[in-house]
Each structure stands twice: as structure tokens, then as C-alpha cells.
Write a structure and sequence with these properties.
By secondary structure, this protein is an alpha+beta fold. It has five domains: 196 residues, no CATH class; 111 residues, Phosphatidylinositol 3-kinase Catalytic Subunit, Chain A, domain 1 (Ubiquitin-like (UB roll), Roll); 107 residues, no CATH class; 70 residues, no CATH class; 177 residues, no CATH class. It is 49% helix and 10% strand. It is built from 26 helices and 15 strands. It has a six-stranded mixed β-sheet, sandwiched between helices.
């Protein structure tokens, strides 16, 4: 039996005993009332007779009391008492307290009252007494413990007897003047019940909270169990330092310890196990639990043990569930104030300028709409416009591209048509040129202030003998939002270096993903400075930042840089376009077309989603006249020596070690990512998953795409990840045009 069940039995026994004693005391009270009333009537009758014998006149009250006996012969005391008892209405008060048994739900009486407690009371008095007692019963539906009742109280209320006209008073059970023989025992029981109730409501509650893969925490509720699920969520969010929205699930032992959504606090008790499930705007993550991926470090690489088939499907098969891995990556994400939160907008919004500039533009637009006359801005107005646009541009990028300058200039003359240039072909060429010069001057101001993204391109950071500021400018080239962020407020390179050293010890601890994530968030800026400025070797960088070479941290780092979830976005778009892409691939002719058809035959032999995705990736490279073996390298497990030599000679790619004699649906012996001859990830689930991790590492380490596979990686970036999708090469643009024309036919 659980502690709650033992407590239930204990309370039931205690309350049953207390109820029996209370109702015994109530029975004694009414018996004493009965004796007192009968004794009073006897005395009144004796006094009446003495007055009659003395010849004294009777008052009106005494006469009214003797109306029932006038004209009847004198009776003995015993006969008189029986006569009075016969005239009074006999009342039965039965007070029953029901308890609800847990096993069968049958209500059984705990204590039954005497069949006749007040033979001298009227029936109406009985009904009123019952109502008074029932009114004092407190409904146990709001009580956490169903057998705790409040003490029954009887009101102090004088009532007139129906026949005799005499009055008597109902006293409260708390009145110290009552003749309670067990008053001390009742008081003791009440105190014990109050202490038990208070201790149950305020005793500390311990809960196990699962916050992620191999990560759990203990939450102690000092003031007892909260009354509602939202209150519990707030306390867990506070103690576990969680960010964003999430749902709680509880472990149900009746269903083999599976997790179900927590809807009522009655589902959990002390030492229960709860799981945190993140919630995002997308419905994909809203209805699925966080997948659990076991990670460990082995040798020089971050080894990821093979997942079960169900875990693999939950993580990679449908795009709806692959979003969960990114959800876990963002639950604990705490962006710094220096980190940008959004990429370049699809439609640039022109900001409001200074008050005087807005007045001049309103007047110019009004004149242009009435008369068609263009506004010739004075130098002060032009400076105000350019300053406002520059401040808005640097919110997204310090080094905008030519297409983005064009987008800003078009948005300016669209909002303020009076600023259109009459001598220009498109009406904004002069504004575009002025913006470029203005951004150059604005970057000079940022460099003096200490903006890290601009300082990295100063002359003192150029190689020796280079005096040109334009030489090898380091700027975002793959739609990075936070390319080289400034240090967080109050932090210095020395303090963040101490954080890095702390990370080296924290990563060795088990079930410590939450602390590792917080430290990785805090040290993001110094890590990006090291990557962008120094361009270290992969082996050296991995020794300094081993926590980065984990799947969950790669996803988190990618989202810090681009603000886009990695796994969910890639697989969602890839699965969306797969059917149309395979139709396009089937139309390809020549040698590459024949190789594509051989690959597509594999998709008809199995329904495995990983096999289908891998065929799409390989066919995509062939369709773009590129060799897929350039980044997907296959080896056999029989030749270990040659495999290791080939991996060490690989600069960038995905390696697959297959088992000899395996079928299409059989999992490879090992799948991983290799950079500069070093296995940085291994034990992955599939080739497509390794490809996604490779994309994340390219962004995290600021690597360039292989020249011989630049179109394949451009498709993965701009079509599958939707990063900088408006700026395409001619070959990729042709593929996208065919793809979308086929989609919208």
C-alpha cells in the first residue's frame, strides 16, 4: 500500500472513533434536555396543585399550562408523567455519517443514533435540529482528503415547545458549560485532526522532472502539492530554469510506466515522475513528446549509440516528429541581449523618420498626388532619411548585399513616391548608391564603438603585409543572422574563458545537459569570435569545445546562428518536395539520367523513409551534374585498415560503413561525419541525418561548401532550409522554376 492509502485508513479509523464519541455526547445532551424538561413540568404541576389547595388565584400562564388537565381527576406522579409523555410527540433523530469505501464504492454507516433520543420534543423541532446539523457539514469535495469533516455545531437558538409553551435553548458543542463527559477527548481528537491536515497540506513534496535526453532534476515543493496544474508548471519552470511554453506528462504505472498528459493534480503524488514536453507555434511539436537520444563520448569522437527503431522513427521519419529535437534544443535557450532574433525580412519595412522629416514627406506626398511634382530633398532631409534607413538595416545586417540595398530603396520610394528620382531608370538608383556610402560611414562609427562584427575586418586583424581593408572581408555569406556577435553585457573575454573551462568539467557529468546548454548559450559570442577570427583546426577546436560536437548542441548552435530550427526545417521541406523532385529526376537523360533511374528503383523496393531520402539526395547531386560520392563515402566493414586511411584523407563528408551481405533496409554498421580527417560524429541513424548534422557543423565552424558540390549544398541551404532563398545561382534557379511550375500546374 502507498503512503496515501495508509493515511486514508488511518484517517478513516480516527474519524470513525471521533464520530461515535460525538454522537454519543449529542445523545447524552438530548437525554439531559429530556430529563430537565420533564422535571420542570413535574415541579410546575406540583406548584399548581399547592396553589389550588391554598385557594390562591392562578395567573394566566399557569392557567394556560393547566388547560390540558382541568376537569380530570387527580393522577399519581407516575400516571401524570406517562400522560404527559403520551401527549408529547415522540421524535427520532438519527444522525448517520457515511464514508465512501474505496474498493466497491458502497456507502456504509459508521455510527447510527439511538432510535429515540428526545421523546418530549416535537417533530418540527427534530426537523429543525437535523437541518442545523446538516448545514454545518462541510462538503468534502474541495478537501484534499475526503474523510475530514468539520465539527458539527448546534446553534444557540431558543425554541418554544409546542404544547407546554416552555422554552429551552440549544447550546453549541463548543460551549464549556455543557455537561460533556468526553469534552477533553473530543478536543484532543480535533487537535490531532487539525495537525494531520496541516502537516499533509504543508509537508514537502518531491517530484522527479525529466527535462530532456538523459537529463532529470528533483523538484522539492516546500509548501505541499499545488492545487492546480498551472501552479505546478510555474514552480517547475522556476526551479528547473525552463524557458518557453511546455506541457507536463506523468508516468502511469498502470500502463507500463508510459507518459500521459497531466490534466488533474489527483494523478500525481509524492515522488511521482513528470516529463517536460515543449510547445511551439507549430502543431508538430505540440502533440509529440521530446525524443530521447542517448549521447556519449568515445575516444576522439562524440559517439552516439544506435537508437531503437521506434526512437529512430520518432526522430527522423515524419517531419512532424523531427521537429521535437529542435524543440528540445530551444526549451532552455536564453538569448543574450547582443544576439539578433530575426533574419532579413522578406519585405523591408521603412521606419518612421524624425518628426520634421515626416512632416516634409507628408507635404511632398500630398503635392505629388495632386500635381505630380517630385520632391527635391534638402541635405538635412536626405541625411535624416539615410540615418533612419541605416539604423533599421543594421538591426538585421551590418554587411547587406546588393539585392538587399535594392530592396530597401524600392521600399523607400514605394512608401514615399515623392522621393522618386526623375533621371533614373528605376527611380531609386541614386538612393541605392547613397545607402551604400551611408552604411560604410555607419560601419566606421560602429568600429570605433567596438562592434565585434566590424572590428574583425579592421586592418590590425589582416595578415601581415596586407594594407587593404577590403581584403578577405569576413561577413555572413550563408544567411547567418548572428555571425560574430558582441560579448554579453558585463562579460569579458577572461570571464567567458572561465566559462569554457567550466564546460570541460560539466560535460563529463551524467544527466547534465541543462547546465551544459546554459553554459553553451553564455559562451556563444566568444566561441564565434574564435571561429571567425582565428579559423582554428577542427582537432584543436574540438579539444577546446567538445560539447559542441553533440547532436543536440549542433542543432542549438545552428539555431543561434540562423534563428532557424535545423532538423525539422530540413526534413519538412525535403519531404514536401521529394515527390516532385523524383518526377523531375525521372525525365533526366544521358548517363546521369540512367544512374538516377537506377537509384529510384530502390525506392520502389522498400517503404523506409531513410532509404527514400538518401536516394533523393544522391539523385539531386547527379541531376546537378555533381558526384554524390564527393560527400557520401561508402566503405565495407571487412577492410578496416583501408577504411581508416580513406577517412583520414577525407576533408569534409559523410562516411557510411556497411555490413557485407546486408539488404537495402538493413542499418549500416556505422554512419558519421568526418571533417579534416577526424570523425567528429558517428553512430548516427542514417545518411540523411548525417547530412543534416554536416550542414549544422558547416555553419557552426564557419566552413565553406566544397567547390565540386556547391550546387548540391546550395539546394540544401536555400531550398530545404530556406536561408537566403531569393538569391540563387542560374542552375539552382532553373531547378526551382521547374519544381514550382510543376507544383502549381
Amino acid at each position: 500500500m502507498s503512503k496515501l492509502q495508509f493515511l486514508n485508513v488511518f484517517l478513516t479509523d480516527r474519524l470513525t472513533l471521533a464520530a461515535q464519541e460525538i454522537f454519543k455526547a449529542v445523545e447524552d445532551i438530548f437525554s439531559e434536555y429530556n430529563e430537565e424538561i420533564c422535571r420542570s413540568r413535574k415541579e410546575i404541576e406540583l406548584l399548581r396543585r399547592r396553589l389550588q389547595q391554598a385557594g390562591l388565584p392562578l395567573d394566566s400562564e399557569t392557567q394556560s399550562c393547566s388547560n390540558g388537565t382541568r376537569g380530570t381527576p387527580a393522577l399519581s406522579e407516575e400516571q401524570l408523567r406517562c400522560e404527559e409523555d403520551r401527549k408529547d410527540t415522540e421524535v427520532q433523530i438519527k444522525l448517520e455519517l457515511y464514508t465512501e469505501e474505496e474498493d466497491n464504492g458502497v456507502q456504509t454507516s459508521v455510527c447510527n443514533g439511538s432510535p429515540s433520543l428526545l421523546p418530549c420534543m416535537d417533530t418540527d423541532d427534530d426537523q429543525m435540529a437535523c437541518k442545523d446539523i446538516e448545514a454545518q457539514m462541510i462538503d468534502n469535495s474541495e478537501n484534499d482528503f475526503p474523510f475530514v469533516y468539520q465539527d458539527v455545531q448546534i446553534k444557540n437558538e431558543p425554541e418554544l415547545h409546542a404544547e407546554s409553551g416552555s422554552t429551552f435553548t440549544r447550546h453549541s458543542s463548543d460551549d464549556p458549560g455543557l455537561p460533556f463527559r468526553d469534552q477533553e477527548m473530543l478536543t484532543q481528537h480535533r487537535m490531532e485532526l487539525a495537525e494531520i491536515n496541516e502537516s499533509l497540506l504543508t509537508s514537502p513534496i518531491q517530484l522527479k522532472i525529466i527535462t530532456g535526453p538523459q537529463s532529470s532534476q528533483r523538484v522539492i515543493l516546500q509548501y505541499g502539492m499545488p492545487t492546480s496544474v498551472p501552479d505546478l508548471s510555474k514552480e517547475i519552470k522556476k526551479q528547473c530554469n525552463l524557458q518557453g511554453n511546455f506541457r507536463l506528462q506523468y508516468m502511469d504505472p498502470e500502463f507500463d510506466n508510459e507518459f500521459f498528459n497531466l490534466e488533474s493534480m489527483s494523478e500525481i503524488q509524492d515522488r511521482s515522475t513528470l516529463k517536460v514536453v515543449c510547445l511551439t507555434k507549430s502543431s508538430d511539436c505540440d502533440n509529440s513528446p521530446i525524443p530521447y537520444v542517448a549521447t556519449s563520448q568515445s575516444g576522439s569522437a562524440c559517439s552516439l549509440p544506435a537508437l531503437s527503431l521506434s526512437s529512430c522513427d520518432a526522430l527522423l521519419s515524419p517531419p512532424s516528429t523531427s521537429a521535437n529535437f529542435d524543440c528540445f534544443a530551444s526549451v532552455f535557450h536564453q538569448p543574450s541581449s547582443s544576439i539578433k532574433s530575426s533574419a532579413w525580412p522578406p519585405v523591408f519595412t521603412v521606419p518612421r523618420f524624425a518628426y520634421d522629416a515626416e512632416l516634409k514627406l507628408e507635404q511632398g506626398n500630398a503635392i505629388f498626388n495632386r500635381q505630380g511634382i517630385y520632391l527635391s530633398p534638402d541635405p538635412k532631409l536626405k541625411i535624416s532619411i539615410l540615418d533612419g534607413l541605416a539604423e533599421e538595416i543594421v538591426k538585421y545586417k551590418v554587411y547587406p548585399s546588393d539585392a538587399e540595398y535594392t530592396q530597401v530603396a524600392e521600399a523607400l520610394i514605394k512608401k514615399h513616391p515623392c522621393l522618386k528620382e526623375r533621371g533614373s531608370v528605376n527611380g531609386y538608383s541614386g538612393w541605392k548608391t547613397s545607402l551604400k556610402y551611408k552604411l560604410g560611414n555607419y560601419r566606421a562609427k560602429l568600429r570605433h564603438i567596438g562592434c565585434a562584427e566590424v572590428i574583425v575586418n579592421s586592418l590590425k586583424h589582416k595578415p601581415d603585409g596586407i594594407s587593404s581593408p577590403a581584403y578577405q572581408v569576413k561577413k555572413p555569406r550563408k544567411a547567418e543572422v548572428n555571425y560574430c556577435p558582441s560579448l554579453p553585457q558585463g562579460e569579458t573575454p577572461e570571464s567567458l574563458e572561465a566559462v569554457r573551462v567550466t564546460l570541460l568539467s560539466e560535460i563529463q557529468k551524467k544527466n547534465n545537459e541543462v547546465n551544459v546548454r546554459m553554459l553553451m548559450d553564455k559562451s556563444f559570442s566568444i566561441r564565434r569570435h574564435e571561429v571567425v577570427k582565428d579559423s582554428p583546426l577542427i582537432a584543436n577546436f574540438k579539444d577546446r569545445w567538445p560539447a559542441l560536437f553533440r547532436m543536440e548542441e549542433i542543432c542549438a548552435e545552428f539555431e543561434r546562428i540562423t534563428t532557424v530550427p535545423l532538423v525539422s526545417t530540413f526534413f519538412a521541406k525535403m519531404d514536401k518536395y521529394s515527390a516532385k523532385l523524383m518526377k523531375l529526376f525521372a525525365k533526366r537523360g544521358g548517363v546521369y539520367g540512367q544512374r538516377i533511374k537506377n537509384l529510384l528503383i530502390t525506392t520502389t523496393l522498400t517503404d523506409n523513409i531513410d532509404v527514400r531520402r538518401e536516394c533523393v539526395l544522391r539523385s539531386l547531386s547527379l541531376y546537378l551534374n555533381e558526384e554524390p560520392s564527393g560527400f557520401i563515402r561508402e566503405y565495407m566493414d571487412t577492410d578496416v585498415v583501408s577504411t581508416e586511411e580513406a577517412i583520414q584523407n577525407t576533408l569534409l563528408g559523410v562516411f557510411v560503413i556497411k555490413v557485407k551481405g546486408s539488404n537495402i533496409e538493413d542499418r549500416p554498421a556505422n554512419v558519421g561525419v568526418v571533417l579534416e580527417g577526424l570523425r567528429v560524429l558517428e553512430g548516427l541513424n542514417s545518411v540523411t541525418h548525417a547530412t543534416v548534422m554536416l550542414m549544422g557543423l558547416i555553419y557552426a565552424l564557419n566552413l565553406s561548401y566544397p567547390l565540386e558540390l556547391r550546387y548540391t549544398f546550395e539546394i540544401m541551404q536555400k531550398l530545404f532550409l530556406e536561408l537566403d532563398g531569393h538569391r540563387l545561382s542560374s542552375k539552382v534557379q532553373m531547378l526551382k522554376t521547374k519544381l514550382f511550375s510543376d507544383v502549381f500546374e
